[in-house]
Amino acid sequence: MRKYMWANALVASAAIAIAGCGGDDLNNGGPHHVSDISVPNVKAGVNFSFDIGVVLGSRYYFTDRNNASLDQIDIPSKAFVKLIQGSGPLAFTGLGPGPNSQAGPDGATPVGNLIYAGDVNSVKVVDPSAGVVTSKITVSATGVRADEGCVDSVHGIFMISSPEETPPFATFINTATQTVIAKVTFTDSAGQPTAGLEACRYDAAGDNFYVNVDGSTANPHGELVKLPGAAIRAIPNGGTQNYTTLAGVAMYSEGNCDPTGLALGPGSDIAVGCREGTTGAPLLMQILNRSNGALVASLNAGGGDQLEYDAPTNRYYNAASRWTSSGNASTNGACSAASPCTPVLTIVDAGNRRVVTRLNTGNNAHSVAVDPATGLIFVPYSSATSPAGCPGCAANGFVNGGVSVFAAR
To answer: Could you say which residues form the signal peptide (predicted)?
Structure first.
């Protein structure tokens, strides 16, 4: 039986309590575990390399490097449907010969009735209803990935970041023609390449793209950059411009954060998931005012990667794969046998900006997606023993790897 953790809604700290065996017995109709879904070729001992997940219609999709695929799960039946794999030039890279920077697919973003998936040197366009990869949009030729993206559906522009390029850059794509219309490079005001790029979001109300920058000279542990949509559209077709020269650009410090996930919350809130690399630093989730960058809340709720906001529950969901029992970063922020992590799904009330609960998840469970229609939450995870650093995963019932399903209410 699984063991689950919970935290009182009035406590925004690292303190957590064991709710006992049997996650489905979590009382009062609160967030709880529902089931697990197996994934082809993922089993005990396998290091399952996955990335971002999304909901489109009645299906959940997530990127799967082990199978070089976009995986499809039916939400009503909570059943695995298929591996969507391209072939020839439309094939996903898969695990590749080296690190994640040379592997794919990576980010996944719904664009109309399609899904755009970042891959090495390119964006792959998937028709999920047909279950096929239909086209490829080339963004570079350097052998590193295009990672996470976001879409301005008002003007039909998709943004995707290439964090490992020198300097890092973002590519902007016309979603009607599936062609590159502009690039924005990230060399900071001191003339140095930024440390990389993480998640991005488009805010239609303000006509701004927001992106987490891993670090700059002025903000070495992260900054939130606001890229005005009008400035992006003003770049001559096919042109390149540096972010510091865009009209109306703004850079907001994120403190000692090392940012990852990003989510637009209610009102003017924007939530930043931090995954601190400083040993012993508090694992934070920062909530900023996206109009002026002011910090409005700082919660001990970080250590994750993908961060999502669900309007029906008015809550944030943080896949905190690097959470620890102390609520502070493990050695250099990485999980290991000597400095273990205790992965959790952290749920935060977006109204009062406080932690609602933390539920145990499986090893390296850094991806999360919420279906607003059913309130089901999908969290992929790796096997208990690989990668190293989660000694409690097997005891909590997360052994083989796959996808955990939780209920938001």
So the answer is: 1-19
Burial 189-224 (b: 16+ CB within 10 A, else e): eeeeebbbbbbbbbbeeebbbbbbbbbbeebebbbb
Q: Angle at Cα 108 formed by Cα 390 and Cα 186, nearest 5°?
A: 95
Phi, psi of 332 (to 5 degrees): 55, 20
Distance CA 124, CA 262 (A): 22
The span from the CA of 261 to the CA of 204, in Å, is 19
CA distances from 357 to 30, 90, 99, 117 (A): 9, 41, 33, 31
What DSSP string describes 280-303? T-B--EEEEETTT--EEEEES---
pLDDT digits (tens, 9 = 90+) for 281-313: 999 999 999 999 999 999 999 999 999 999 999
Structural tokens at position 28: 């009062």
Give the containing element (helix H, strand E) for 231.
helix 229-234
**Are 100 and 94 a contacting pair, CB within 8 Å?**
no
Residue 158, beta-bridge partner list: 151, 173
Look at the block and give the residue holding tokens 């499809």.
72
Report the predicted TM-score, pTM, of the whole model to 2 decimal places: 0.93
**CB crowding 14-37: b at 16 or more within 10 Å, else e:** bebeebeeebeebeeebbbbeebb
Is 276:256 a contact under the CB 8 Å cutoff?
yes
Domain boundaries of the chain, sorted by first residue: 32-407
- Domain 32-407: top CATH class: mainly beta
* Predicted local confidence at residue 5, as pLDDT: 45
Structure-token pair, residue 5: 């953790």
Q: Evaluate the CA torsion angle 321, 324, 328, 329 in order and state its sign.
A: negative
Task: Determine contact, residues 221/258, Cβ cutoff 8 Å.
Answer: yes
Residue 244's pLDDT band, with cuts at 50, 70 and 90, is very high
Distances (CA, A) of 48 to 123, 208, 265, 272: 22, 35, 30, 26
Alpha helix positions (H), 96-169:
none
Q: What is the model's pLDDT at position 13?
A: 36
Phi-psi region of 78 (alpha: psi -120 to 50; beta: other; left: phi over 0): left
